[in-house]
Amino acid sequence: MIQKQDSYKIIGIDPGTNILGYAVIEVSGRTLKILTFGVIKLFKEEDQAAKLKEIFLQVQEIIETYLPQQMAIEAPFFGKNVQSMLKLGRAQGVAIAAAITMGLEIHEYSPKKIKQSVTGNGNASKEQVSAMLERILKVKIEAKYNDATDALATAYCHYNQGASLSPGEKKLSGWKAYLSLNPEKIKKADKK
Fold it and tell me: What is the set of active-site residues?
């Protein structure tokens, strides 16, 4: 039988090469608590390699401080500027590498999926996402940068995808899947 943990933590990341958003939430049963959220500013770094190194080091520092078990990260979206998308993909890859080296489970979500999870509308504005997070989490979100709110939305989206699942626990797709993971239930049912 799968043992559930009482609580676990999720780090949400909104990747970027100038500003990277992050958020860490703690899940206890159905209760969510924001542990931290903010941005990593990378403007002062002059070249791309220095920015990527800083992302790696700072994401690892956040992980070491808050000890999340899972990372939810926003997938890059396809825009008209291919160079921007490549830079964004590199930032995402470095953040993922930092989490992998720390032993976290990694989960990626599209911007549309994140908005859908938070507001019910995949085309919601950033303001609508922020307002809904305030209602859901019962906090006032005063983020100077949307990137921090986007990271919080990404962590919340991941929570929503497995709402009551703890790290390592599997989502089941039906009765057969449940029984395949819990064969003792078949024996008990046969005895009745």
Answer: 14, 74, 147
In sequence order, what DSSP letters do the residues of 4-29 get, joined into one string? PPSEEEEEEEE--SSEEEEEEEEEET
How many CB atoms neighbour CB 176 within 10 A? 9
Q: Is the pLDDT of residue 13 over 50?
A: yes
Q: Which CATH architecture has domain 7-191?
A: 2-Layer Sandwich (3.30)
Domain boundaries defined on the chain = 7-191
Query: What residues have CB less than 8 Å from 63, skipping those under 6 apart?
Result: 11, 98, 99, 102, 104
Give the per-residue pLDDT at 139. Answer: 87
CB 149 within 8 A of CB 143: yes
Contact 157, 133 (CB under 8 A): no
- How many residues are there in the chain? 192
Residue 160's alpha-carbon distances to 58, 76, 89, 120, 166, in angstroms, are 26, 20, 25, 12, 12
| pTM to 2 decimal places | 0.81
**Model pLDDT for residues 130-145, shown as the tens digit of each residue:** 999 999 998 888 877 8
Tell the residue number behind the tokens 């956040």, with chain if given.
Answer: 62
